[in-house]
Amino acid sequence: MGKNLKGKSIGRGICQRKDGIYQAKIYVKGTPKPIYLYDSNLNNLRAKKKQHELIKNQSLSSAAFMTLNDWFEHWMETVCAVKLKNTTIRNYYDNYNRIKGKIGHIKLSSLNQLSIQNAVNELSENYKKATVKSTLNVLDACLEYAINNFAIAYNPCRGVILGERLKDFAPQEKKKTQSISIKNT
């Protein structure tokens, strides 16, 4: 139980800082860090915390069963079809289709950075870096929309590293890379 500056208990997950501001801590499943809410009025903070938890619980549970393919279609129909030109929409579909077979079947609630990183690594073997980057950008925009609609708690595209194809290295660098990988195995 959190306490105020006078030592009085003010509720679970809520405390008062030395500067008099009340702070609420909310843990979201699937994220390593909690979300902090602040207010100078305790009742306002409790209302914010309650509203945030209600929105989180309602939305996350309804979208938890959607796959990435379903969410992408929803995003394209509700957002992209309204504000983008047909050629841009076609390019988004082309970019997404590259990664669709690798991670499209995964539920939004189960999607993590590792699965996206593995898919990007597979794409890097067959496509140039710019192509993989554009594919990742489309996926990132789609997942940002999911965050804004409380479908997921965080964007698993954040921190994904684009790999280099072995074909893109100079011949001398290829030999070094291959010899290093042989020595390490």
Q: What would you say this structure looks like, in words?
A:
By secondary structure, the chain is mainly α. It folds into 2 domains: 62 residues, no CATH class; 113 residues, Orthogonal Bundle (DNA polymerase, domain 1), CATH 1.10.150.130. The chain is 56% helix and 10% strand. The strands form 2 sheets. Strands 3-4-5 form a 3-stranded antiparallel beta sheet, with helices on one face. It has a two-stranded antiparallel sheet with strand order 1-2. Strand 3 and strand 4 form a beta hairpin. The protein is elongated.
Number of domains: 2
Structural class: mainly alpha
The proportion of strand residues reads 5-15%
Rounded Rg: 22 Å
Q: Report on the biggest sheet.
A: 3 strands, antiparallel
Name of the CATH superfamily of the largest domain: Tyrosine recombinase, N-terminal domain
CATH architectural designation of the largest domain: Orthogonal Bundle
Q: Number of DSSP helices?
A: 6
